[in-house]
Amino acid sequence: MNDFLQYLAEPVALRTLWSCVVIGFVDGYVSALVVLRRSSLQIGAVSCALLPGIALGILLFGLGQWSALVGAVVAGLLVGLSSLFVARSSALHHDAALSIIHSAAFALGYVILVRLGLQQRVDDWLFGNILSMSFADLCVAYAVGALALLGITIFQRPLLLWLFDPRTAASLGLPTRTINYAVYALIVLALVSSLQAVGALLTLGLLVAPAGIMRLLTNRASTMFLGAGLIGAGCSAIAFFVSYPLNLHLGATIILLLGVVFCLAWLFGKKEQTH
Questions:
Q1: Which terminal residue of the chain has fewer beta carbons within 10 Å of its beta carbon, N or C?
Q2: pTM for the full model?
Q3: SS3 per-residue string spanning the chain
Q4: What's the pLDDT tens digit per position in 212-233?
């Protein structure tokens, strides 16, 4: 306990705690879009596609902060859009096309990074290492967070109309295709901003579980955004105080706590089916 109290007195501890809260709140807030859009499996596939983007960015431009970041963003966008193109131009379903493309891309990224001698960094990119987040990482996370919160809050009503009744939204003159691409791009940016914190394999939990928990507790879609953000921030903060004394991986502890809260919400939340 004394070691933990000494750790809390260090500047890095406060920075880590603040990063957990901000990333947890932003990803939780954005997770409402993922759950209401019913695209959890698609986003899970895209999160795994971040690794090959990092690998190609490093291969082309060297090991640097921005090469890995830009590569991850480009890969996430390309995998999602290419799978949609394949599905529309063939008899293959979108989910099947996405699964094939993202698994092949993930394997390619892993092979490249191992060949480059970056095995240790691979573990950080897969499972996260929030303690190693640099000032640039934090700036990216805060910038994406501000963009996501501002955009979703301002356009929440047209977004909800588009999510629940896209035909009516189109008849009212809303640019539904542009909204679809913008929402997808925003989710990819949220994935990338939390990559350093919880990794490509675990970030899906932070972008689905908070809103999934809220969905079990309320039928009001308008309250899901703030509620999911608070759940994401709360579980991330609690994980910070739990992981260090127990010597647990912080990113994995965040997702584990979200899983526990989800089970509790399922047991004691609303039981009626909602659509």
A1: C
A2: 0.84
A3: CHHHHHHHCCHHHHHHHHHHHHHHHHHHHHHHHHHHHCCHHHHHHHHHCHHHHHHHHHHHHCCCHHHHHHHHHHHHHHHHHHHHHHHHCCCCCHHHHHHHHHHHHHHHHHHHHHHCCCHHHHHHHHHCCHHHCCHHHHHHHHHHHHHHHHHHHHCHHHHHHHHHCHHHHHHCCCCHHHHHHHHHHHHHHHHHHCHHHHHHHHHHHHCCHHHHHHHHHCCCHHHHHHHHHHHHHHHHHHHHHHHHHHCCCHHHHHHHHHHHHHHHHHHHCCCCCCC
A4: 999 999 888 878 999 999 999 9
